[in-house]
Recover the amino acids of this structure.
């Protein structure tokens, strides 16, 4: 049994990872300021401390085996309107966390990064050696933290793994998406199915894809959680390992809509609108390195399975 600190552990992904750590027999402290997370999401059995990443300095001690860092501001559009917030929360917060880890002699870090660091890729699937050219302050701040981690690994022997991924979906037990406002496609579609939203907008249907709509990579949140636990085992002192995560294929917007209709048995109205500036036709990540270095293999790649788990969680939230 080891003890881990999970920053942002009251959020969607962080809560699932915290629950997975507990299921594996570890002790978990969740640190979250509840700006976007909810206390209901903190898994039973975890210690909870309300605060931001800077407060890690008051919690960490050599008894912690490592830190899994999810705490961040993560809305692309908001980052364009308020970049200062993102540099402060994401970069300064991570800098303070890593400094606290060094003072407490906590040597292992798994960082929840993002495939947004790649911007609009020249080639797909995207590999880790693709050029990084983020198109938003959100992506830029995540990339800056990756650079920060690389420096700490080289200078101080930090054992670190960054995981980069696109769209996370599905649910795991009592843990699912509770974003406000919601911006992810599958939860938005479920809102339409539940008559909480009149329709879904499709931004562009003339892309060079199999049905004209954008192709995106979706990964089940439980598969993602497994990758984070494997990353803890793979971390090596003085190395910053970066791995992309994906399910191996992408789905078009229309394919996701059709899946929601099949799973829910409900009507889902759609409306086609013009393309959004900067939306690439295809965004799919290569997970070859994660398979090789982490021994990670996604097991829940079927789109209907992902949607069904999200639907079950949405219905449970209504009960």
């Amino acid at each position: 049994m080891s003890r881990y600190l999970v920053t942002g552990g009251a959020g969607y992904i962080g809560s699932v990872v915290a629950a997975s750590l507990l299921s594996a027999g570890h002790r978990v402290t969740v640190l979250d300021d509840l700006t976007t997370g909810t206390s209901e999401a903190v898994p039973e059995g975890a210690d909870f401390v309300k605060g931001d990443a800077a407060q890690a300095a008051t919690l960490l001690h050599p008894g912690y085996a490592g830190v899994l860092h999810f705490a961040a501001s993560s809305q692309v559009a908001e980052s364009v309107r308020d970049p200062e917030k993102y540099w402060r929360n994401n970069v300064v917060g991570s800098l303070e966390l890593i400094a606290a880890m060094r003072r407490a002699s906590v040597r292992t870090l798994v960082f929840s990064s993002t495939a947004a660091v790649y911007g609009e890729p020249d080639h797909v699937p995207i590999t880790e050696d693709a050029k990084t050219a983020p198109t938003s302050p959100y992506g830029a701040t995540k990339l800056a933290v990756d650079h920060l981690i690389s420096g700490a690994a080289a200078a101080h022997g930090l054992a670190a793994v960054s995981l980069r991924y696109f769209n996370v979906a599905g649910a795991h037990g009592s843990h699912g998406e509770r974003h406000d406002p919601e911006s992810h496609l599958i939860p938005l579609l479920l809102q339409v199915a539940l008559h909480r939203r009149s329709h879904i907008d499709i931004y562009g249907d003339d892309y060079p894809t199999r049905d004209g709509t954008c192709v995106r990579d979706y990964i089940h949140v439980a598969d993602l959680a497994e990758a984070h636990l494997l990353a803890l085992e793979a971390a090596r002192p003085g190395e910053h390992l970066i791995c992309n995560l994906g399910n191996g294929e992408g789905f078009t917007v229309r394919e996701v809509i059709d899946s929601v209709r099949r799973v829910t048995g409900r009507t889902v109205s759609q409306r086609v609108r013009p393309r959004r500036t900067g939306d690439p036709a295809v965004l799919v990540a290569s997970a070859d390195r994660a398979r090789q270095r982490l021994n990670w293999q996604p097991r829940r790649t079927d789109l209907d399975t992902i949607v069904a788990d999200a639907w079950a969680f949405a219905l449970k939230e209504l009960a």
About this structure: DSSP finds nine helices and 13 strands in the chain.
